[in-house]
Design brief:
Layout: H1 3-15, H2 18-25, H3 29-43, E1 48-51, E2 54-57, H4 59-84, E3 92-98, H5 99-104, H6 106-116, E4 121-127, H7 129-137, E5 143-147, E6 154-161, E7 164-168, E8 179-180, H8 182-185, E9 189-193, H9 198-209, E10 215-220, H10 223-231, E11 237-240, H11 241-250, E12 254-255, E13 257-258, E14 267-273, H12 280-296, H13 315-325
Parallel strand pairs: 3-4, 3-5, 8-13, 9-10
Antiparallel strand pairs: 1-2, 5-14, 6-14, 7-11, 7-12
């Protein structure tokens, strides 16, 4: 069993086919087929069920997968341990990050990092999650911060969950109810952003799976533009918690829970190449990222259910009680 075979096996398992795995690994499709065949020959069993155009893991493949993932993690950790013994000549850190992470999460982290490591030159490049992955794979960034990225050459560290939250202005008529069914939301005015992004796909999919069509009154380019529109009461929007946590805590925006659908969960991940150990500067940055994620995305306060007002006693009832208390 060779490392390239293990990586190829995981790529095929993750992407569901030889052609897509070949594109991800930047090798030919026959090379992918040959590696999988050699791995299956060495194990004496088939790893994939080849039914039509789609591949699925056999019981042997499902058994092998967690061990294969652990093998690559162990190799990455071994490289990291050896690398840390060597003196560092680095003085630079290159970070790629999703645009929303650059806007709402990294500034405070970078400020603390600059204070602790003033001589380290830090460069940050922004892009969509797939662009972040490509920059890390191409060696243009030492590490990336994005959402839900998987690749056999990439080591992924999950910082925490960053869900999409339905938000509205507290005085917006549709934001007064703390909990609603999805069907009720269908007719409410919604603001969408960044058509084609993973956020757009998630929110559209929420309605599509229920057979509903969202009432999109505004489409904008960025999360920040969508948040500004929501703040001005133009509609409601599914926004990342990382972008609205402060406004939810302060009460400038209000969260609305959809009671009959799953929350739109997304991971906030840090990625780097498995075969290239992180420098001490990058390790220090990763530590700050973990600390910041634990504090910046603390759960926002839930909206308490309104208490039913107690009826005031009628005037004649008050007079009767007063007569009973008065001396004869």
């Amino acid at each position: 069993m060779e490392i390239d075979q293990v990586k190829t096996f995981l790529a095929v398992a993750a992407h569901g086919g030889f052609r897509r795995a070949a594109e991800v690994l930047s090798v030919s499709q026959p090379a992918v087929s040959a590696r999988i065949q050699a791995l299956e020959d060495s194990l004496g069993t088939s790893l994939f069920a080849r039914g039509g155009s789609k591949l699925s893991l056999t019981p042997a493949g499902r058994t092998l997968r967690p061990y294969a993932e652990q093998v690559l993690r162990d190799i990455a950790q071994a490289r990291q341990a050896v690398h840390e013994l060597q003196p560092s000549a680095a003085g630079a850190l290159r970070v790629a990050a999703a645009l929303s992470i650059c806007t709402y999460f990294l500034p405070d982290v970078l400020k603390r990092y600059q204070t602790a490591y003033p001589k380290t030159m830090v460069t940050v490049r922004a892009g969509h999650s797939k662009e972040v992955l490509k920059m890390v794979l191409d060696g243009e960034a030492d590490m990336g911060v994005a959402r839900a990225l998987n690749h056999p050459d990439i080591e992924t560290t999950t910082l925490r969950d960053d869900p999409l939250v339905l938000t509205g202005h507290p005085r917006h008529p549709n934001a007064r109810l703390p909990r609603i069914p999805l069907e009720q939301l269908e007719t409410w005015p919604l603001i969408f952003y960044d058509r084609g992004s993973s956020d757009w796909t998630l929110t559209q999919g929420l309605f599509r799976r229920a057979g509903l069509l969202p009432n999109v009154v505004l489409e904008v380019e960025t999360i920040e533009a969508a948040k500004r529109m929501v703040e001005r009461g133009l509609g409601l929007g599914f926004l990342p918690l990382i972008a609205v946590a402060q406004e939810l805590r302060s009460g400038r925006l209000r969260a609305i829970e959809i009671v009959d659908s799953e929350p739109l969960h997304r991971n906030l991940d840090v990625i780097h190449l498995r075969h290239q150990p992180l420098t001490p500067e990058a390790l220090a940055f990763l530590k700050l990222l973990r600390t910041a994620a634990a504090h910046a995305l603390k759960p926002y306060p839930r909206i308490p259910a309104r208490r039913r007002a107690q009826p005031k006693p009628a005037a004649d009832s008050i007079r009767r009680r007063a007569r009973r208390r008065s001396p004869a």
